[in-house]
Design goal:
Elements (H helix, E strand, L loop, with lengths): L1 E6 L7 H10 L5 H4 L3 E7 L1 H11 L6 E2 L12 E5 L13 H19 L5 E4 L4 H6 L7 H9 L5 E6 L2 E5 L6 H7 L2 H17 L8 E4 L14 H15 L4 E5 L1 H9 L5 E4 L2 H11 L5 E5 L4 E5 L16 H24 L4
Parallel strand pairs: 1-2, 1-5, 2-4, 3-4, 5-12, 7-10, 8-9, 8-10
Antiparallel strand pairs: 6-7, 6-11, 11-12
């Protein structure tokens, strides 16, 4: 029986709504996962109850104290974090950012202590975190700091498309200067490892997307391919990784959609997110590679404009929860193999 921690995210956003819909709403996966996982939500009981009322979903979680024995867990459990009530649904604020951050801290500590098998995080707001005085405003950056790991990689999936990102949340004007041969090489290695470990592909085929149009036209339309991307590809090829490229971005996406690649390496955020969200509606999920535990999240943000209106689609949250359960099983199996089954 797997134990999955889920943070409520920004209480002023759609996180509580999509989580309830995913677990208890019409078309939810609550019954589907009941036989294989227990859910522990980290957040405010008051926020969850308010979301129940707005979604017309009956839900009274089992409030627990940690650590809790698996046998004491019910299908849906809650670590109640007393939250401020001075936030407004649909608006970023210091209070909403503080409550979201406390949930992350508590859930990550629990995961690092080995008391849960995976972590799913509902959306947070960089604006709310900034108002709360948080210096590291990105979810991934906070997770990296709290776990003490040096390198993490964003890995995204939706339908037939899978992407690993070299750079994350950067202004476009900073992407070129941030790209490095080592950064590209490290991302290729991370993608290769993820496809082997989580998807059980013995020798993945990875495509690398170019930064510039037409893959730089041999330096006529930018030099990043010749100076950084191609050397990185050659380096990891010498290590035995089955990687090809760089390909123009449009060509690479078309090739993966036809099954030519098991995954793609993208140079920047929107290079991956645009095709990812076009190809398969509102499903798909994000995973953070490099953490000591499995972490997934939906592909959307807080969506303040529809928060509290019972309009949010839980498809991406459902995908993230399913992936967390599936990948935590695989990670456990991989750990057992590495230790000789002991």
């Amino acid at each position: 029986m797997k134990v999955i921690a889920i943070t409520l995210g920004d209480p002023a956003g759609i996180g509580p709504e999509v989580l309830l819909k995913a677990l208890r709403g019409e078309g939810s996966i609550g019954e589907e996962i009941a036989a294989e996982a227990r859910i522990i939500i980290f957040g405010s009981a008051d926020v969850l109850r308010e979301a129940c009322g707005k979604t017309n979903i009956e839900c009274e979680p089992n409030v627990i104290q940690l650590p809790a024995a698996t046998d004491d867990l019910k299908e849906l459990n809650l670590v109640d974090l007393d939250g401020a009530d001075d936030f407004v649904v649909g608006e970023a604020s210091k209070a909403s950012g503080k409550l979201a951050l406390e949930a992350i801290y508590a859930a990550v500590e629990t995961a690092c202590n080995g008391n849960v098998d995976a972590l799913v995080t509902m959306p947070v707001s960089k604006v709310a975190f900034t108002l709360a005085g948080v210096k590291r405003t990105g979810h991934t950056e906070i997770l990296r700091d709290r776990t003490g790991v040096e390198e993490t990689t964003m890995f995204l999936e939706n339908g037939p498309l899978r992407f690993a990102l070299v750079t994350k949340h950067l202004p476009i004007r900073e992407v070129s200067d941030t790209l490095s041969e080592e950064g590209v090489a490290q991302t290729i290695r991370a993608a290769d490892h993820a496809l082997r470990e989580y998807y059980e592909i013995a020798r993945p085929t990875i495509g690398v997307m170019a930064l510039n149009p037409h893959a730089g036209e041999n330096g006529l339309v930018g030099g990043e391919e010749r100076e950084k991307i191609i050397p990185a590809i050659k380096r990891v090829q010498s290590e035995g990784v089955n990687v090809r490229g760089p390909f123009p971005a449009d060509v690479a996406v078309a090739m993966q959609s036809r099954g030519s690649f098991d995954g793609l390496v993208a140079m920047y955020h929107d290079q991956a997110l645009v095709p990812l969200k076009l190809v398969n509606g509102e499903g798909g999920f994000n995973m953070t590679l490099g953490l000591p535990f499995v972490r997934t999240s939906p592909l959307h943000g807080t969506s303040y404009d529809i928060a509290g209106k019972n309009l949010a689609n839980p498809a991406s949250t459902i995908a993230a929860i399913r992936a967390a359960i599936r990948f935590s099983r695989r990670k456990t199996a991989e750990s057992a193999e590495d230790s000789g089954g002991e």
